[in-house]
Design a protein that fits this description.
five-stranded mixed beta sheet
């Protein structure tokens, strides 16, 4: 069961940004743990990850998260005013019933 999703509404060109998600297994109510699958792009250009994805942690109840660095330019053109679109999927196979939760996002570059 999806619990929460965190994403900024806008980011500054040249800065990093992070999205995060927490999910709970409906069978036992435990926080889902696992590695996130993350993608983000501006137009057709995939963004470079800023840090490796962070797995969700049950002990700390930490969300799975992914970070990217927003480029100032793509193909010689500014990214200001463009929209970043992407998604984060969390897969937890540790329980009797695997949890797969996906959320998409869109973030404006300012």
């Amino acid at each position: 069961i999806f619990k929460n999703f965190i994403a900024p509404k806008a980011v500054k060109a040249g800065d990093p940004f992070t999205v995060g998600m927490t999910a709970v297994r409906d069978v036992d109510g435990q926080v889902a743990t696992g590695d996130p699958i993350c993608k983000a792009k501006i137009g057709k250009t995939l963004l470079r990850r800023w840090n490796p994805p962070v797995a969700a942690g049950a002990a700390a109840r930490s969300p799975a998260s992914c970070s990217w660095l927003v480029p100032k330019k793509i193909g010689g053109k500014t990214t200001k005013g463009k929209t970043i679109v992407g998604g984060l999927t969390l897969i937890d196979g540790s329980g009797l019933h695997p949890v797969v939760e996906s959320r998409s996002f869109s973030v404006k570059v300012r």
